[in-house]
Design brief:
With 312 residues, the protein is of the alpha+beta class. 46% of the residues lie in helices and 19% in strands. The protein folds into 3 domains: 183 residues, Jelly Rolls (Sandwich), CATH 2.60.120; 51 residues, no CATH class; 62 residues, Arc Repressor Mutant, subunit A, CATH 1.10.10. Helix 3 packs antiparallel against helix 4 and helix 9 packs across helix 11.
């Protein structure tokens, strides 16, 4: 079981292109905070990324930058360029009609693809918020997959064809996975423990893979240690050091995420959902779910469906 792929699937992490910008110097844009994560890649030209309290970052052709919490930021042609508010509505309307949003006057020198990533807020296992506030990968920095995907984006943007918006959105999804791979491979000991950091430890990753593959199994620290061929003490120590919690705590949260999705997306009885996530009785499952979500599973299902039906 691929833990990262499973978290992305269950949390429904998706990327969507928000705008294509053609910029002529001088230019500057101020972008408000957005839900999820914000993403930019330069297919040509250069730009400066501005954030309050952080030194500006120079972006070159082929660079990608991910703002994991969607924080307020600015983009500009020069360090001292005036920043004007970015019109999100106009940008999205232009993209939906196949047009490009123009910034500045004169010859276009910089082209930027802007996207955002969102996830299901009902899933407790974090992903985007575990990444650095600003993740900047420079072109040619050794991440060949990222460079190749950015080139594909540039080709698609230079020659739009049938279903180009769909192709762009799929490539943006691929880029997120490549960015996460790059970050996980370079994590230092100083990074706060998390399940993403745990993927960098082969023993911990194997344990998480086993739990994700069979969440219904009555896992104990002993059976999990036997599964990954280490001692109980070794597994407990390494799991806590990398992930920041015990295997049992991690498994319980993941089971509740799976249960929440099943309650919302299926009509399965509570007993069936309980067994699918490792509980032998509906009562035990209801207690665990109530502790995790502060509401019993039956009420959670009703509230979600009422909320969904009331949303236009």
């Amino acid at each position: 079981m691929d833990v990262l792929a499973e978290v992305i699937r269950v949390a429904q992490v998706r990327g969507a292109v928000a705008a294509r910008l053609d910029a002529a110097e001088p230019w500057g844009l101020q972008l408000d905070r957005v839900p999820g994560a914000a993403f930019h890649t330069l297919t040509s030209g250069t730009a400066w990324l501005h954030q309050p309290g952080i030194p500006p970052v120079h972006l070159a052709p082929g660079d990608v930058v991910l703002l994991a919490t969607g924080a307020e930021h600015g983009l500009s042609s020069t360090l001292d360029a005036d920043l004007v508010p970015f019109d999100h509505v106009a940008a999205e309307q232009a993209f939906e009609t196949g047009n490009v949003m123009r910034v500045g006057h004169g010859d276009v020198q910089t082209r930027v693809l802007c996207a955002s990533y969102r996830h299901d807020p009902g899933i407790a296992t974090p992903l985007l918020t575990l990444l650095p506030e600003v993740l900047h990968i420079a072109a040619g920095s050794g991440h060949r997959g990222i460079d190749d995907t950015v080139r594909l984006l540039a080709v698609e943007l230079s020659d739009p064809q049938l279903a180009t918006p769909t192709v762009l959105n799929r490539l943006v999804d691929i880029l997120l996975i490549q960015l996460i791979r790059s970050w996980v491979s370079s994590i230092s000991r100083e990074v706060e423990p998390s399940w993403l950091k745990g993927l960098g430890d082969p023993v911990v990753a194997a344990a998480m893979n086993a739990m994700h593959a069979r969440p219904e199994r009555a896992w104990t620290i002993e059976s999990l240690a036997g599964e990954v061929a280490v001692s109980r003490a070794t597994l407990a120590r390494r799991f806590a050091a990398s992930v920041g919690e015990s295997p049992g705590a991690y498994l319980t949260r993941w089971r509740m995420d799976l249960a929440a999705r099943a309650l919302r997306d299926t009509d399965h009885p509570l007993e069936v959902i309980a067994r699918s996530v490792g509980y032998t009785s509906e009562y035990a499952f209801s207690r665990a779910f109530s502790r995790a979500r502060s509401v019993p599973p039956g009420r959670y299902r009703r509230q979600w469906r009422q909320q969904t039906s009331a949303t236009p």
